[in-house]
Amino acid sequence: NAETTIEFNLSNATFATVKIYSVTGKEIETLVSGNLTAGIHRVKWNAGDWASGVYFYRLIITRIEGEKKTLYNKKLLLMK
Description:
The chain has 80 residues and is mostly beta strands. It contains no helices and six strands.
């Protein structure tokens, strides 16, 4: 199965971005980029076009003051 669900919880409504990166740090896909409400969010990544290997996802929120903060930077292992 080449699909996974990334789940995260936001304590406040905010602008959020979820991106997928290769093991070399190259950005390969943006899953979310927009305003999200407070609460639990689930984002699906269909990795059918990508080779088996290690990938990373990063959740970045932007506060009202314009400050960006990385909340999650986690590893994904894709096995086909």
